[in-house]
Every structure is written in C-alpha cells, then in structure tokens.
Design a protein that fits this description.
Blueprint (H helix, E strand, L loop, with lengths): L2 H16 L4 H9 L5 H8 L6 E3 L22 E8 L2 E8 L10 H17 L3 E5 L10 H17 L5 E5 L2 E3 L4 H5 L2 E5 L4 E3 L3 H8 L5 H5 L1 H8 L4 E3 L2 H12 L40 H8 L6 E3 L7 E8 L2 E8 L10 H16 L4 E7 L6 H5 L2 H14 L4 E10 H6 L9 E4 L4 E3 L3 H15 L3 H19 L3 H5 L5 E2 L5 H11 L18
Helix pairs in contact: 4-5, 12-14, 16-17
Length: 519
C-alpha cells in the first residue's frame, strides 16, 4: 500500500467515524430537534479549536451478537478545545450509536479526558444524551460509570465541572451530573430520574409522565437538581460559554478579569428610594443587583428554584463576584430548607474557585411551621451557616433592611468572618421585629392594663421604644458588627473598593482530612 493509499484510508476512516451511527440515525436524531454530538461540540467551542481523541476506539463486547456491530468512537466524542481562547475538555455521548448507552470503552474514553483535564487544570464539560448502561456488557458498564464517578469526586472543587442534559439520563447515569458543579437541561428532550415511570407504576402504583417525574421544569423548580433550564440546545451551549467566563480554570487560579468601562464611582440615586418606608412592603432585590453590577449584567443561577433567595454571578469592576441575596419579593425573603441548601451550595462553589462573595441581606427569619421542622430546616440552615463560616474568599455583606435572629447570623454576619459588613440606613438588625419582641417582653404588663385602647397605646409606645433602640443599624455599628452605615446610592463604589482592598487576603482553615458539613 502506497503512502497516498494510506492517507486515503485515514481520510475514509475519519469520515466514517464522524458519521456516528450512520446517516439514517442522524436524520432521525435531527427530526427530534436534537443536534449530533459533534454539532454540539462545534457550537460550544471556539470555531476550529476542537481536537478529537480516540476517534477509532470500538467496543470489545461479544455478547448478544454485539461483535457483529461496531462503530468507530463507540458512542461518545471526546477531546479538547477552547472557549474564548481558554482550554476546555469535553465529552458528548452520541445517541446515534447504540442510543448513547455506556460501554466499558466509552467510559475509558471519558475517564481519559477527565484525567487530562485534572492534570492540566482545565474545566470539563459533559454533554449527556444517553440511554444509560449498555445492558449487553453487564457489570462492565456499571464499572465504567463507577470510574467516571470517582473522577468526578476527585475533580470536585479542583476544576469546574459542567453538565448539559440534552436527552435521556436515567438510572446510575444520573450520578455523574449530580456530582458536577452545574447542570443544565433543555425543556423538550431532557429528563433525569433513577427509576422511570414504568417502574414507578409497578412498584408504587403511581401513574406519572416522564416530564413530571424527571423533566427540566421539575428539576429546575422542585428538586433543585438542575441549576439551568433552557429552551433548546443552542441556547444551552451559549449559556455554558457565558457561565465559563465567570469561572477560573481551576482552584489555584482566579477567574478572568474582564475589561470594564463602567465607572466604579457611578452614583445610583434610585437605590436611595428602592426600599419602601413600610417594613412589610416588598421590592425586587434583582433591581439592586442589576444596578450595582458592571453594565447591569447579572448571570442568575437556580433562577426557578427557591426563589426567596437569589444566587448568581456578576462582574464588579471586571472582577467575577458571586452574589447571594434574599428576595423580599418572594415569601418576604424568608429562609427555608430549599433556600438554605441552594445558597450553601453556591457559597461553597464560589469558595472552591476563589470567587469573592457579595451578600445582600433583607431577611425576616426562617420560615416557621411543622413542615419545615420535619424537613430538617435546622440542618439545612446549618449548611448555609457552615458554608459562610468555612469560606476563606473575600466576603462583603450589605444589609438593606431586615436582618433578624438566626437568619441574621447565617447570612454572612461579621462573626462568620465577614470581611466588610455594611448597612444601609434602612437596616433593622435585631433578634426579631419590634412587634414580636414587645409581645414577648411586655405581654404580662399589657395584660395588667385595663381597656383595649390603653393597652394599644402602651404597646405602641414600647414598639416605638424598641425600634428606636434596635430596629436600625446603629447598635450593631456601635459594637463593631457593622463596619459602616453607607448611603445606598454609593453601594457600588463601596463594594468594589472593599473587594479591591481584599485582593491580597490570605486566610486558611485548620488542617484536617475534610470538614463534616451537616448533610
């Protein structure tokens, strides 16, 4: 065979490999509104940057006639490329090859890129569209999944791991996405569950659809398993590109610094009147975030889950910052089980990847009731407290209005090693609201007073006295728990100046094998 013939053979094999399961299967795949694995990677990465690996790998299974059907690449496309010039490792299961089912060799391909990503310190992005374990391979497929899971665990907090779900993801396959930092699902075709509707019907008698059991709507709003829900694959891949821009390559680096033409000393007069005079009237905390962020841009995470707390990324003078903020517009901004674990997870993600944390506080307390207590609100609240107390990244806290009781503590208070704790003049930092406090403190005295009108007058006087003493930021400031009371319109400048001051912060936790956060 001549050299030219060898080159022709290489070109022929590459062409065959890039066709995956063949033209008919690709057409069927497209008819469902789905891209192929390579099309997804091409859209995700910078044009022309993808370098594919293990294109010629095939499965080694001989059971059930599998030896008679082989496809090069064997159901997953792996390699590396760049996003905005930064190195990214990627793998995408190919549904046109055996339904994207996981074989032992597929797992080996995925593990190879995960190992390389960990060695060079680069993010890993997995695109999942798979029928699950390849049944013909039995425990070999399960062992392959386990190898992937182990690498997810070893990479956790070291390199960013992002998963896109563009199709089925069921059974043991769900654990790899669950071990990653961020999960994104498409509305139409994506679903995740441990056991499907048929098994659920057989075992429990419950009749439920695929979408209700494990669709994007459910996981992004009820279970909280998925941080993002998108309309289609193209929007999802562009969202991942945006997400990566806020993250560093690994835990030893800082997030990229963006050019910023937005003045740091920009005055935002709207903030001086955004908090209503009535302490019980809601307002939208997102307006505050958009106002102080560079160019008004805020990249929200977990938008549809636990809406009483907001988490996401923005840039402040070009620096990537994680934002955690109570939302008075939803459930008055109270903390509950879901809000606590949502925020705790985000705080730990930011801390793992050296992203400073800005906390905006307006929280009346924890949601009361037996439902919350039975669901373990104590443990979930402790997760948030633990996350803030353990975090060593720069932490700036601004209290806008209410900050009561235990909820005050868990929202990055000074005693949880908050670096700069500011308050607006409208801040109320106390054990509880004035009316509730007086009911506890003066209940017996009120009962001794004759006449409802006289009782009301006495209560109002005591409430006013309590508000004067405690429903303001100045008692906390007098004790040094608040570093300064700031004018709202200057918030952007004060926060940026604080983070600039903290750029050289060095703080470490005691040596230990690992912490034991309440799970």
């Amino acid at each position: 065979m001549t050299n030219q013939q060898k080159l022709n053979k290489l070109i022929e094999l590459r062409t065959e490999a890039k066709m995956g399961g063949g033209e008919k299967r690709i057409e069927k795949h497209h008819a469902q509104g789905k891209m192929t694995a390579r099309e997804r990677i091409d859209l995700l990465l910078d044009e022309g940057s993808f370098e594919e690996m293990d294109m010629f790998v095939t499965h080694r299974c001989t059971n059930f006639g599998m030896d008679k059907t082989k496809f090069m690449g064997d159901g997953v496309v792996v390699g590396h490329g760049t996003i905005d010039g930064r190195v990214i490792y990627v793998y995408a299961t190919d549904f046109t090859v055996f339904g994207g089912s996981m074989s032992e060799t597929m797992a080996q391909k995925i593990c190879k890129v995960m190992d390389m990503a960990l060695q060079v310190g680069a993010p890993v992005i997995g695109i999942n569209d798979s029928g699950g374990a390849r049944i013909q391979e039995g425990v070999g497929s399960l062992a392959g999944y386990s190898e992937i899971f182990q690498r997810n665990i070893m990479s956790s907090g070291v390199i960013p791991q992002i998963t896109a779900i563009f199709g089925p993801c069921a059974g043991g396959a769900v654990y790899s996405p669950a071990l990653t930092d961020f999960i994104m699902m498409t509305e139409e075709n994506a679903y995740m569950f441990l056991t499907g509707p048929k098994v659920v019907k057989t075992v429990t008698g419950e009749d439920i659809s695929v979408a209700d059991l494990g669709g994007a709507d459910m996981h992004s709003s009820k279970s909280g398993v998925a941080q993002f829900k998108v309309e289609d694959e193209e929007k999802g891949l562009l969202l991942i590109r945006k997400l990566v821009s806020y993250l560093p390559q690994n835990n030893l680096e800082e997030a990229p610094l963006m050019d910023c033409s937005d003045p740091i000393d920009r005055i935002d007069d709207v903030l001086n009147s955004i908090v209503p005079d009535s302490p019980n009237k809601p307002y939208d905390m997102k307006e505050v975030i958009h106002t102080i962020a560079d160019r008004g841009e805020f990249f929200e995470v977990h938008r549809n889950f636990a809406k009483n707390i907001i988490v996401g990324f923005c840039h402040m003078n070009g620096q990537s910052v994680g934002v955690v903020a109570n939302q008075p517009n939803y459930l008055a901004g109270v903390l509950d089980c879901d809000a606590s674990r949502k925020a705790a997870r985000f705080v730990r993600t930011c801390d793992a990847f050296n992203i400073p944390i800005l906390t905006l506080v307006d929280v009346p307390g924890f949601l009361p009731g037996s439902g919350q207590e039975y669901a373990g609100v104590i443990g979930h609240g402790a997760k948030l407290l633990f996350a803030y107390g353990e975090a060593t990244v720069p932490k700036v806290t601004v209290t806008l209005r209410k900050s009561y009781g235990g909820a005050h503590i868990v929202m990055s208070c000074k005693q949880l090693r908050g670096d700069f704790n500011y308050a607006w003049p409208s801040a109320e930092i106390a054990v509880m609201g004035a009316a509730g406090a007086i009911e506890v403190l003066e209940g017996r005295n009120v009962a001794k007073i004759e006449g409802e009108e006289a009782q009301m007058k006495y209560v109002n006087e005591k409430v006013a006295e309590y508000e004067e003493a405690f429903s303001n930021p100045y008692q906390a400031a007098s004790l040094g728990y608040i570093d300064d009371v700031i004018e709202p319109r200057n918030t952007r400048f004060r926060v940026i100046r604080a983070f600039q001051t903290l750029q050289t912060k060095k703080q470490s936790n005691p040596p230990r094998k690992h912490c034991n956060i309440p799970l």
